[in-house]
Structure formats: structure tokens, C-alpha cells
Write a structure and sequence with these properties.
The complex is a heterodimer of chains A (310) and B (389). Chain A has 310 residues and is mainly alpha-helical. Helices cover 72% and strands 3% of the residues of chain A. A 7-stranded mixed beta sheet of chain B has the order 7-6-8-9-10-13-14, covered by helices on one side. In chain B, strands 2-1-3-4-5 form a 5-stranded parallel beta sheet, with helices on both faces. In chain B, strands 11-12 form a two-stranded antiparallel sheet. The two termini of chain B are 41 Å apart. The chains are: A mainly alpha (310), B alpha/beta (389).
């Protein structure tokens, strides 16, 4: 039971990161029916930008307390948000009427550009965040040997706050309503007086800004990264978005958590069912499960039941 | 692949008159290739290869070259990737090299060695220790490092005799090199009376290893031997500390890198054992001391990794063979290395010679421990070598 709790916490943490990144895929797909392959790399750029800020500018000014980290978060979100809007303007908008294949190729191109630049900026090395960030957070001992680090709890809380905040924003505000309208039909939205281009720009600012924030959190949490981070996490998050029903915000969150927890549980309980080297088989088993779920529900877990798409 | 080979042969025929024949003339440079990861996860090592070898090439050229001809170093980046490695091998052959030093990791060395073998190029790897690389009967393939099985035996003896362990765990990352070392360690551990109570692999693309670490924490092991690379080694150490687990780690030689301590954080890394070839500055042979001094003078810091020194070693072996045989024919050089190359004063200690497979004879592994300051320090107690059957 204790092990189960510990593994559940491990899985929730991994899943939380998948979920936040998945939000970016699902929002863009909602309004444009475009799979924004550059999203994973924008997320990695959040890690990279956070590293740059915390090891140079902010390291000189402060002793890296909570205020410095909040400042880094704001700057990273602004930077990645602008990056997202720029990519939409340069690489996607001119291709909006060019069918479905060209924008996807353009998105892959943007992903490779981002990754190559990051590779050169980071010298292709593993880069480490300054040690001891947020280390003053206490470790929580739940029962017996189960321990949750304060950092884990904080990450999970931030991830949940982002998801809930985004959901409320889309469901309860005027701009959110406009986003939902755009996701249903561009032309009709325009007739209703909605500035479709501006809404799309906004989606391309919010999604990447949240992704960038997740990137910064990953950097603080794991302490090190390299430029391939976006590809691996991006792929997993993309799968999480599909699993939950792409275009659907609660679906992306659900997909992220299911993916993180199922990966973890394969490793945790594989040995109990006779698979001694379960970790080596983790991805294979987790993805067979996902294929099975998709066969049973081709539009994803929440793909049909919720009408509103963003 | 077949088409690539055919194209290469055609290209070689076309370029032959310009490349090969011109290459034989007086004063034409002797071209030696260096392939390694200049980018990617192992870029640090590849760039160190180039620094170390370039230093010796410059020195040889200042002293008049080899056989009166200058030496030209041709460097290619394989990014540690097997696909790119095959392309790089073709490019080096097009450049007209007689010998190649590289690659860094076994996964990248394997496809390249097939191509060099077909083309009859002399190929020496400074650092790829997967056993099966020399099991293919390639007559012109050598290595100046030591095999995985030597290190596995050393690690088992260190765990049993120095740490007094009885129940051990083994963790690898499914790469050619790490899986090979892990498998040999399991074999020797069972032979020498240790219980292997945990054996699994991680996926090196992952960032989070807490699930498997939780399993390891439950398994009640005396020591866990991780055979993978330093980036994942660092993450494992850091997350072990984050989870509050008490695991005694021992790492293989691919984790022998100060960057691992940086990734893990000093506190989390302290106390970890490492089995490896000795660090460059711990070598007491005069040739080693001289090389480390020369390197420090040129680049402002000593070579950080033993693999850089072994890349330089590989170049010295090639240069020595060229001078002794007065030939640049890879076949002649390879035959010399197999038959007559004995007791050469190498940078990493005397090279007794190469066996018929091309493997270096002897062993030089040592036990290190990361101390409280995060320095990878020579451990005062070393396991006594066992006589091998």
C-alpha cells in the first residue's frame, strides 16, 4: 500500500507535466485543426530560457529566492508567448488556406528550427539549473516510508492551477466564448463580429506561454536538461492529448495523468506479474494499453461526450 | 545500404586518380580520420577527442611529419548516432583517409567498423568497449581501451571485496555498451558468489526515473551497479536523494565525468563509487604526465576524461606503426600491430600488445569514489586482481 502510494505520487508528477504540455496541443488543434509539432520544442525553449535567466541575469541580481523564480516565470512566459505568436504569424497563417498537409510540414519545420537553435545555444551539452532552488520547501512524510517532496506538491499544484484556470477562462469569459466559437466555425464567427485572427494569435500566445512555464518548472524540478527534451516530452504530451480527445481541455489533462500513471504502474507492478525487467518494457506495454483504449474509443476518452471544443 | 556502398565504390573509382594516386606522392599529406560525437549527448567527449588528437598532430607536423609527409586530420561528427555514423564513414573514405580513430560509443562504432572493414581502412576505437565489436573477425579493427568483460570482473571484485556486498542490483540503459557490461557483470557476479537480486534497464530518453528508483529502494540491496552514461547517472543520483532513498550506487566508466556530479548536485553524488580507467592526472607513467602537461598548456585545463587521452593514444599507435613499417598501407599497418607491436610505452601505461581479435591485452581499471566536495577521487582501497582462467 505504501509503495502504491509512493508510485501513485511519482506517476501524478510525471503525468502533471504531460498534461500541461498537452494543453498547448489541444488548444491549437481546437481552433485550427492543426497539430502544432513545434509546441514540444517551445516548451523546451521555456526550460532553456529559464536556465539562461537563472544562471546569468537573475543570478547576478538576487540570491535566487522565490521572487527571482517568479520573475523568471513571468519573463519566460512572455518570451515563449511572443515566440508562439511569431511562429503562427510567420509559419502557419500564410498557409491557413493551403490544405491540411502543408501546415503540418511547416510545423515540423518550425520544430526543427527551434531545436537546432537550442542545440547551438546550449553547445549541445546537458545544462544544469543553479542548485538548491526552492529547496527550503519541506519534505512531507505521509505514512511510514512514503515521502512527497515539497517541490513535487508545488509542481502538482501549479499544474492543476494552470488547468483549472485555463478551463474557467475558456468557459466563463467573453474571450473564451469567442475561442469556442472560432473552434466551431471561422466564417460564422467572423459574421458574429469576432476578430478570428486575433483570437488565433491569442491561442498561440496562451498555449506556448503555459508550455514555457511548464518548461521552467521541469528545469527547476529535474535540475538539468538538454535540447532533445522537447521532442521526447512533446511526443508523450501529444499522445496524451489524443488519448483524452484532442481539442478537449479536460481530456488533455485526463490523458496526461493516465499516461504518466500507467507508465509508472507498469514499472512498479511488472515484477509482480513475472516481468522482472519491467522498466525496459515500460514504453512498449504502456503504448499497447493506449492503442487498446483508442481502438475502444477512437475519438479519445472525452472526445465525444463534451460538445464545446477549444 | 547496398546502393550506398555501390555509390561509394563508384565514387572512389572516379576520384581514385585524384585521391589515391596523388596521395602516394612525396609531400602529399597522410590523411587520418577522426569520427566522434561533436554534437548531441556525448558532444563533450567528441570535442575532447579532437582537442587531444589535434595536439599530437600539430606536434608531429612541427617535427617534420611522418615519413617526411605532413599529417592531415579529417574530423567528422557522428553525433553518437548509428545512422549518422555510417554516413560519416563514407565521407571519411571519400576524403582518402588511411586510418580512422573513433567512434566514442559502441552503438556508433559498430556500423562504421563494418564499412571501414569493407574498404580495408585501419580502424582504432579509443573508447568503445562492447565485447562484440571484436567478435566479427575484422583484421584491421583494434581498440586501445579495455573490454567490457574486464571492467565487469573488476566491478564484481570491488563490490564483493571492497564494499563487502552480498545482494546487488544491476541497471543498464539498453544501449549496446551498457547492456553488454551489465550482462557480463551478472555473469561474473554469479560466478563469484554474489546474489543479483535486481536487474533492469531504464530508457535514456526519459527525464524521470522515480518509478524504478522506488522499486530499487524496496529491494534491500547492498549496492546497485549502473552501467549507462553520465547524464542519466546524474539524474538517478539526484532523484534518489529527492525521494529520500538510501541506495549505494556504483557507476561504470561511462559515468566517469564531472558533468555527472554537476547534474546530480554535490550532495546527492557524494559517496558514489565509479569503476573506470584511471583519470588522466592519476596516471604516473612519464608519457602520461608529459601529455597531461602539454594538454594543460595548450587548453588551460587538464584533459577531463580518460577517453581523450585514449584518443591521443590511438593516434600515437598509428603514427608509431607508420614509422616502424615505413608504410601507409592499412594492411601492412594492421599486420604490424597484430604481430610485432609489443611493449610500447603508451600514454595509459605500457601496451603489452593486441590479441588476434584486435583487443588490447591487460587491464587498468581502478575504483574511485565521489568525495564530499564532489571530486571523483582515487579510492584508497582497491580490489586485488584475480588470476583469470
Amino acid at each position: 500500500m505504501e509503495t502504491f502510494l509512493q508510485q501513485l505520487i511519482n506517476g501524478l508528477t510525471i503525468g502533471g507535466f504531460y498534461a500541461v504540455v498537452a494543453l498547448g496541443y489541444t488548444m491549437v488543434y481546437g481552433v485550427l485543426k492543426l497539430i502544432n509539432f513545434a509546441h514540444g520544442d517551445m516548451f523546451m525553449w521555456g526550460t532553456l530560457a529559464g536556465w539562461g535567466l537563472l544562471t546569468t541575469v537573475l543570478a547576478g541580481l538576487t540570491d535566487l529566492d522565490l521572487a527571482a523564480i517568479l520573475a523568471a516565470a513571468v519573463l519566460v512566459m512572455a518570451f515563449i508567448g511572443v515566440m508562439g505568436m511569431t511562429i503562427e504569424r510567420v509559419a502557419y497563417r500564410p498557409l491557413r488556406s493551403a490544405g491540411r498537409l502543408s501546415p503540418i510540414i511547416s510545423a515540423l519545420g518550425a520544430a526543427f528550427v527551434l531545436q537546432s537553435v537550442a542545440r547551438n545555444v546550449s553547445d549541445a551539452r546537458w545544462r544544469t539549473y543553479p542548485p538548491g532552488l526552492l529547496k527550503e520547501l519541506p519534505n512531507l512524510r505521509l505514512t511510514g516510508s512514503v515521502s512527497v517532496s515539497g517541490l513535487q506538491v508545488l509542481m502538482l499544484l501549479v499544474c492543476v492551477a494552470i488547468m483549472v484556470g485555463l478551463y474557467l477562462f475558456v468557459q466563463r469569459t467573453r474571450i473564451g466564448t469567442a475561442m469556442r466559437a472560432v473552434s466551431l466555425d471561422h466564417n460564422v464567427s467572423r459574421l458574429m463580429g469576432i476578430n478570428v485572427d486575433r483570437i488565433i494569435s491569442l491561442v498561440f500566445m496562451i498555449g506556448p506561454a503555459l508550455g514555457g512555464l511548464a518548461g521552467l518548472l521541469i528545469g527547476i524540478y529535474y535540475g538539468s536538461f538538454n535540447f532533445t527534451l522537447g521532442w521526447v516530452f512533446g511526443l508523450k504530451a501529444f499522445i496524451a492529448a489524443i488519448l483524452g480527445g484532442i481539442g478537449n481541455i479536460p481530456g488533455a489533462v485526463l490523458g496526461g495523468f493516465i499516461l504518466g500513471i500507467s507508465e509508472t504502474m507498469v514499472v512498479a507492478y511488472g515484477p509482480n506479474v513475472g516481468l522482472a525487467d519491467a522498466s525496459a518494457w515500460k514504453d512498449a506495454i504502456a503504448y499497447v494499453l493506449l492503442i487498446a483504449i483508442l481502438i475502444a474509443r477512437p475519438t479519445g476518452l472525452l472526445g465525444e461526450t463534451v460538445a464545446e471544443k477549444v | 545500404m547496398k546502393r550506398l556502398v555501390v555509390m561509394t565504390v563508384l565514387l572512389a573509382l572516379l576520384l581514385g586518380p585524384f585521391g589515391l594516386i596523388a596521395g602516394a606522392q612525396e609531400g602529399e599529406p597522410i590523411r587520418i580520420g577522426l569520427q566522434g560525437p561533436m554534437t548531441g549527448d556525448y558532444a563533450y567527449e567528441g570535442q575532447g577527442f579532437e582537442k587531444a588528437v589535434r595536439l599530437l598532430v600539430d606536434k608531429v607536423n612541427e617535427e617534420g611529419g611522418l615519413l617526411g609527409r605532413p599529417v592531415e586530420l579529417v574530423v567528422e561528427d557522428d553525433a553518437g548516432d548509428p545512422t549518422q555514423s555510417a554516413l560519416v564513414a563514407d565521407r571519411l573514405i571519400d576524403a582518402g583517409v588511411i586510418a580512422v580513430i573513433g567512434a566514442y560509443n559502441s552503438t556508433a562504432t559498430e556500423p562504421a567498423s563494418e564499412i571501414y572493414n569493407e574498404e580495408g581502412i585501419l580502424h582504432i576505437t579509443p573508447s568503445s568497449t562492447a565485447t562484440r565489436l571484436t567478435e566479427k573477425g575484422f583484421e584491421r579493427f583494434f581498440r586501445v581501451c579495455f573490454l567490457d568483460d574486464r571492467q565487469a570482473l573488476f566491478a564484481v571484485l570491488a563490490m564483493r571485496d571492497v564494499l563487502g556486498a552480498e545482494r546487488i542490483g544491476i541497471l543498464h540503459d539498453n544501449s549496446t555498451y551498457a547492456a553488454g557490461l551489465a550482462e557480463w557483470t551478472r555473469t561474473y557476479a554469479e560466478e563469484y558468489g554474489l546474489e543479483v537480486a535486481f536487474y533492469d534497464a531504464i530508457n535514456p530518453d526519459d527525464q524521470d526515473f522515480t518509478p524504478i528508483l522506488t522499486n530499487i529502494g524496496q529491494a534491500d540491496l547492498d549496492v546497485v551497479y549502473f552501467t549507462g552514461y553520465h547524464a542519466q547517472g546524474g539524474l538517478l543520483l539526484r532523484q534518489t536523494a529527492d525521494l529520500g532513498l538510501d541506495i549505494q550506487w556504483m557507476m561504470g566508466n561511462a559515468s566517469n565525468n564531472p558533468e555527472m556530479v554537476e547534474i546530480a548536485g554535490v550532495e546527492a553524488a557524494a559517496g558514489t563509487f565509479i569503476t573506470t580507467e584511471p583519470l588522466p592526472q592519476d596516471l604516473e607513467y612519464p608519457e602520461a604526465v608529459e601529455f597531461v602537461e602539454m594538454f594543460t598548456e595548450a587548453y588551460g585545463e587538464p584533459p577531463a576524461s580518460v577517453w581523450w587521452l585514449l584518443a591521443a593514444e590511438a593516434f600515437n599507435v598509428i603514427a608509431h606503426a607508420i614509422e616502424e613499417t615505413e608504410s601507409t598501407d592499412p594492411g601492412v599497418l594492421a599486420e604490424y600491430l597484430h604481430e610485432d607491436f609489443k611493449d610500447y610505452p603508451g600514454l595509459s601505461g605500457p601496451i603489452i600488445g593486441f590479441d588476434e581479435k584486435g583487443d588490447r591485452l591487460g587491464t587498468i581499471h581502478a575504483l574511485y569514489q565521489i568525495d564530499e566536495e564532489g571530486v571523483i577521487a582515487y579510492y584508497p582501497e582497491q580490489p586485488q586482481p584475480q588470476s583469470e582462467e
